[in-house]
Amino acid sequence: MHTLPIFLVVFTSVWLASGCAIDVSPRSFVHQAEQPTPLDTTGLHSAATKDEISVGITTVEMTNAQGLTLTGVAVTYPEPVVNIVFFGGNGMAISKANGYLHKLGKLPANIMWIDYQGMGASERAEKIVIENLKKDALQVFDYASEVFPQELPTLVHGLSMGSLIASYVATEREVDGLVLEGAINGVPELVDNLIPMWSKLFTRVNLHPELVGIDNGVLLEQYHGPLFMLVGEKDRTTPVQFTEQLYRLSPSENKAMYVVPEADHGTTMKQPGTLKRYREFVASL
Which has the higher per-residue pLDDT, 231 or 11? Predict the structure, then answer.
């Protein structure tokens, strides 16, 4: 599952149209659908049924500060050992990727996942603003903290673009752990990585000010709690060196990194061995 296809399409289209200049704005970087789509949890039901696991699935709707309705799910697995607030990748809607929830759920865990504004089942604003995504994330975490069992540790888990959101939440709220999967170290570095090497000499990138300052390293330097980092061995979107750089910057005393064999971007939870490492991290909380 690749979590940045929309951005890659826009990125390539802009490059071809301009020849040598790329303008990257929040609008072009963060996927926004024209209309919300009905929430579909068929994939999760099918995966749970196949494994003969009884799963509780509750639809969650909340109104954000802009008056938009954000929609998602709260999923409960039998005898959970951890609460997870999950932040997905760019364009990663619950309805198209809810089978992923089953991978996390088998820890076992309680999971909260709300589609970002303008993605999946959530309403969109006329203009996408990064600061509003951050405010939404705090609201989602606060709600999860209220409804999930207080006696269990609660961690935030971010995949790809969601790694930036999860790290931000971890610096603003008391979390018991932080999981970064296919982490982005910064938008400038991500964009540079996606530009073909042969074109860099004659390509100029104009990043919007909102995107220039997004730096996961700065966020991680402020976070001292438990940290678990996952990255696919074959990840070309957010390569292993991104995660290694962030791991070195982290001041956390309880931190672990797992390079998942044979995995590429967004497929680390599908590989044998990942769940075992994840459980070890949860046990350390």
Answer: 231
